[in-house]
Amino acid sequence: MEFKTTEIKERVLADNNEAAARTRERMRQSGTLLVNLMGSPGAGKTSVLLKLIERLGTQYRIGVMEADVDSDVDARTIAATGTRVIQIHTGGLCHMDADMVSRALASFGVEDLDLIFLENIGNLVCPAEFEIGADVRMMILSVPEGDDKPLKYPLMFSVSDVMLVNKIDTAPIFDFDFDAAVVRARSLNAQIVCVPVSAKSGRGFDEVVQFLRMRLDERRQMHENN
Length: 226
Known about the structure:
The protein is α/β, with parallel strands linked by helices. 46% of the residues lie in helices and 18% in strands. It has ten helices and seven strands. Strands 3-2-4-1-5-6-7 form a seven-stranded parallel sheet, with helices on both faces. Helix 1 (8-30) packs parallel to helix 4 (98-108). It is globular and about 45 Å long.
């Protein structure tokens, strides 16, 4: 008896990628840069966001989408800075997909913003699998997690444009080898930008801000030329 096999995951990812492409085009037309910020729980995603808002908030109009399985703790922290923020609850899902991001952006609005950060759900697996239409995929590896994480979670490091190694001031305590982490990440993705940072002291954030400003300028020029 003949039967048909449906590759459900392939179809789901294909549909997701189509939605991501529409979001990317919407961002291009509005002149807004979308950054997908990923990392494990406790890596310091919200702390990094606070530093970036502090450095960029006077020059650019920033919005933040906070994704969580539940709670609004991080959204309240961001809102206290005066930054526009929206809370997204995923209903138990371990990631944001392109359709969820598209619907959140429709509610949030993008036309009057220069830069939008999505703080994705905290883990190094699911968020890497789902394209959301971001212009920059930035992941945070915190020193206490260990310098071997690129070996254990290769997809995350393969798809990310930027790897921020946070809590770098604790490297001697945890015997963390930054150079080894960079070599392992770049063996998966030769183009990944690797920056040691400390959200506590501000170390390394000049380089991160410079990178984002460059991307924002490129987006602005592209928008003006359309």
